[in-house]
Structure of Bifunctional protein FolD:
Amino acid sequence: MQILDGRALAKTIRAELAEEVQQLKAAGKRAPHLAAVLVGEDPASQVYVRNKVRSCEKVGFESSLVRLPADTSEEEVLKVVHNLNEDDAVDGFIVQLPLPGHINEVRVTLAIDPRKDVDGFHPVNFGRMAQSMPCYLPATPAGILEMIRRYELPTEGKEVVVLGRSSIVGTPMSILLSRKGYPGNATVTLCHSRTRDLAEHTRRADILVAAIGIPEFVKPDMVKEGVVIIDVGINRVEAPELEKGYRLCGDVDYEAVAEKASWITPVPGGVGQLTVVSLLMNTLRAAKGEVY
Ligand SMILES: NC(=O)C1=CN([C@@H]2O[C@H](COP(=O)(O)OP(=O)(O)OC[C@H]3O[C@@H](n4cnc5c(N)ncnc54)[C@H](OP(=O)(O)O)[C@@H]3O)[C@@H](O)[C@H]2O)C=CC1
Ligand SMILES: Nc1nc(=O)c2c([nH]1)NC[C@@H]1CN(c3ccc(C(=O)N[C@@H](CCC(=O)O)C(=O)O)cc3)C=[N+]21
Ligand SMILES: [Mg+2]
């Protein structure tokens, strides 16, 4: 078994980004600027925001964070989105999901200017992605593609099984790996909570992408020998022995499944690391006007 080392890869990519920032500055331009809007205190979002701000600092990007209390009105959030759309000093921004229940996520997502949608969540970017047109790819799927490319993992003709059909991870991942070219040309099965005989599908997978949000859901009897495991899950589980009282784990039973896998991503230190750098890569493309 070999580890797909997201931490090391992210470090390499951050060094490349830092170099590009220096080149922009040498050409008299300002550093790329990424903004994030966080409403309330979703734990996965807090991890993400913290790492995003830290990564921006490491590569020399400007970053800003708009923190709003959980009881902020939808109207107020939409106003913040409009201001960011209009702000020429901001190249790209994201609104952290999930939003509190009283806020309509669809309405907020539709309000984001697709040219600044470095999350790739707006249907204009999603549609462009599905048709292989220039776009911002959603950060988690983009990070997984980057990992596949840099480790030169073959995808052509492979059986890929994706667990989870969210519009930010599972669904775009299934589309991207079925597109023409590399990394693509795979045969993809998309599974979800209504899938019958889930293990019948997962056992056929050459590459298994798990994005369901259930701690250690994928067990060794659900995979075949030699499988490539891409574990997207970021779950908090109780760990009284630790000072903070919890630890992070993925959707895959890492220790047990690693025995059968040819390659596997750890959690933390895997996909999450690449998600953050993909967001920075999208922001750099926005700053350079490469997409729109
Ligand atoms: N590493 C990273 O960068 C990121 C990590 N995450 C993490 O990834 C995980 C998934 O998040 P997200 O994509 O937002 O997913 P969602 O929570 O939006 O959706 C979960 C999906 O899993 C499916 N599902 C739930 N239970 C089962 C089951 N027993 N069997 C099969 N499918 C099931 C659901 O099916 P149905 O549609 O039928 O309800 C749904 O499609 C979370 O742990 C999240 O924190 C998320 C984003 C980025
Ligand atoms: N609009 C929006 N876009 C998102 O992409 C989005 C979101 N909302 N809401 C929340 C989820 C979750 N998510 C994570 C990304 C990286 C880590 C990450 O950095 N993980 C580190 C954690 C290390 C640690 O700090 O312990 C790792 O896996 O190594 C975690 C979680 C993005 N999401
Ligand atoms: Mg990870």
Q: What stands out?
A: The longest strand covers residues 33-39. Residues 6-26 form the longest helix (21 residues). The chain has two domains: 28-114, 139-272. The mean pLDDT is 97.
